[in-house]
Amino acid sequence: MNILVTGSAGFIGSQLCINLLERGDKVIGLDNLNDYYNILLKKARLDRHLNHKSYSHYQIDISNKTDLEKVFKENNIDVVVNLAAQAGVRYSIENPDVYIQSNIVGFMNILECCRHNKISNLVYASSSSVYGANTTKPFSVHDNVDHPLSLYAASKKSNELMAHTYSNLFELSTTGLRFFTVYGPWGRPDMALFKFTKAIMNEEIIDVYNYGNHERDFTYIDDIIEGVIRVIDNPAKSNTNWDGKNPDPGSSFAPWKVYNIGSNNPIKLNDYIAAIEKNLGKKANINLLPLQPGDVVATYADVEDLFITFNFKPKYNIHEGVKNFIDWFKKHPNF
Length: 335
Description:
Elements: E1 2-6, H1 11-22, E2 26-30, H2 39-47, E3 55-58, H3 65-74, E4 79-82, H4 89-94, H5 96-116, E5 121-127, H6 151-170, E6 173-179, E7 182-183, H7 192-201, E8 205-208, E9 215-216, E10 219-220, H8 221-232, E11 256-261, E12 267-268, H9 269-280, E13 285-288, H10 304-310, H11 318-331
Parallel strand pairs: 1-2, 1-4, 2-3, 4-5, 5-6, 6-11, 7-10, 8-13
Antiparallel strand pairs: 9-12
Helix pairs in contact: 1-8, 3-5, 5-6, 7-9, 9-11
């Protein structure tokens, strides 16, 4: 297939490009290479697949509709995977405008381009953040998600609603993937694993919010990629049993679906830090702090729908995943 991957220099996007190219797909990648974090890391990720004979690249922003339309016109695209977004819960509190441009305007442009270019399947990144104030665990796609705690979460919830509208109006098959705390080699420097590892190696103090009692469903990058590819190969279909009198939030009469991709095994942040310490052979200097505004205390993915539909469950545990990351980080300490 000819697959457009937006955010192709990102953590998930770059690895997805590599896996798709390895199995024989043609990949069209685009990324704006913004400076939210170290551009050298983004360029290093991109270098892993930039010169592959079946890869072509555009440095554009999805919020620029004219540039995005040009990409669609120049390529015979079968499937779109939209991973381009402004990430980060805390950053959204101080920089809300960026999230509207990238996550709302940009996603709207993606939908419009899919509509006018007869794309058969749109897969897009949502987030576990959409569960917001929900306290029922594990988080199920069949739960209501109308109480987000950050603008980032609200933007991802908005993407799901916007996608549903296009699935209904234009029969565009759309699948939203609610990722749960993705980690692994080539990860994001603003995420806990990257920051904590670097600080512990340099004997610096690390800030640990909620006194280390956060629980996260840490999900290894290889499991995320496997889930994305299975969804690429199996576009969403209408749920013929969907009932408007008792509406299921996780499916629809339209060809629209959302899935959780998480390890289904929440880990306390203190235990996560312990795994880092073990693999580094060094103790952390910890500054315990209260809960931050916008933070969700715990995430826990119900992945039953993913298993039922695709016979797939994430398999990596934090001991394997953290070790793999630290082995990589020791070879790339300057990121």
